[in-house]
Specification:
215 residues; globular; alpha+beta; 7 strands
């Protein structure tokens, strides 16, 4: 088993792993080409990273994160990723228009509308400036944005291996806090994080924030 930092040449294989791990997700439904582009976001910024587990040239699982600190002008990760893969997303929807009624998208119509507005009106720089003035992060941390394991490899410890590598990388980068958000009804995932010493920081009916930090 080898852990590797993702390169552009690895993205299509990681995309295949993503689709296996999240077969019912909207991103998977949009196809390999879209997922490959979406994952490219992690390689496009100096504050993001992506790594994966490989065995016999097969991607078993992957994990991506982003550094958040100070009052940096940071667009939310989901919005930033959506903007990065916007053109490919439009192409995918044109080829699969029925996905406009996908349950995951229907729950995010407002989010989609905001991103369309940002894209069409070219307000990206103005939005960044506004965020810089109004938002700030007191304690720097590394956010876990995505983690996935192939469907046929789940429950075999690969998720814990990815979380351990994420923690190792966080320490290597010089940070002492990690944070993630998971759907509150995803009990299986929450238990897995708790098994790896993450604790619940906040929880609502929709989402649960978990963290792990040390001195």
């Amino acid at each position: 088993m080898i852990i590797k930092e993702a390169l552009e040449s690895d993205l299509s294989r990681i995309a295949e792993c993503h689709i296996s791990a999240f077969p019912k997700s909207l991103s998977s439904a949009l196809g390999t080409r879209y997922v490959t582009k979406m994952l490219g976001w992690y390689l496009s910024l100096d504050r993001t990273f992506l790594f994966f587990l490989e065995e016999e040239d097969l991607v078993m699982g992957y994990c991506g994160g982003v550094i958040k600190e100070g009052n940096m002008a940071i667009m939310g990760s989901a919005s930033s990723m959506a903007q990065y893969s916007f053109d490919e997303g439009i192409r995918a929807f044109l080829h699969r228009p029925w996905l406009m009624f996908h349950p995951e998208l229907r729950a995010k119509y407002l989010f989609v509308g905001k991103n369309l507005w940002t894209r069409l009106k070219r307000f990206f720089r103005a939005d960044q400036k506004k965020q810089n003035q109004t938002s700030g992060i007191i304690v720097p941390y590394v956010a876990l944005i995505v983690i996935g394991v192939r469907a046929d490899k789940q429950g075999k410890g690969y998720g814990s291996m990815l979380l351990q590598e994420f923690e190792r990388k966080t320490i290597e980068l010089g940070y002492k806090k990690m944070l993630l958000t998971v759907l509150t009804n995803n009990i299986k995932a929450i238990k897995s994080y708790e098994k790896n010493a993450w604790v619940i920081a906040n929880s609502t009916k929709q989402s649960t924030t978990m963290e792990k930090q040390w001195n």
